Amino acid sequence: xxxxxxxxxxxxxxxxxxxxxxxxxxxxxxxxxxxxxxxxxxxxxxxxxxxxxxxxxxxxxxxxxxxxxxxxxxxxxxxxxxxxxxxxxxxxxxxxxxxxxxxxxxxxxxxxxxxxxxxxxxxxxxxxxxxxxxxxxxxxxxxxxxxxxxxxxxxxxxxxxxxxxxxxxxxxxxxxxxxxxxxxxxxxxxxxxxxxxxxxxxxxxxxx
Length: 208
Description:
six-stranded antiparallel β-sheet
């Protein structure tokens, strides 16, 4: 596990990139054809495939940055952090309701707005504001567990929010990821001009 951040700002990234989600379901069929299904995961694993049509070597160091990053995490061995340019921040995200006793609340993000499917966030980037019933709280009144800590992505209040209080947060996050394989294919099509047609990686899961 590392806190290295993938160099997602490299130029040459094409628009022909892929993102997919994966669930795990256990299915058991009977002789009658009836099925019993059990969902094994509580939230999905994400997969990305990025394509770079231009990575300049030499003084621009774009090729070197990608290669160095891949080697520093030893291919698929170590995890790292990725900021998805289209899915990395939210405002006013509800993370729970106070009961007068609970002090800890896991960061979540609901894809598609407040009514969307919520999944836990374990690698917060910037937590800008925490609200209780719409009132911004002092940063001294809470702490947020960083990626790699004992309670990653957990907001801990010094005083438990009162019963019925809505707890919302403005924050950005990373996806903890690893490369899907131990090989990175590169092609030099002109002097010091390279391409990487398929850079595949996936999110890693904590818990169920």
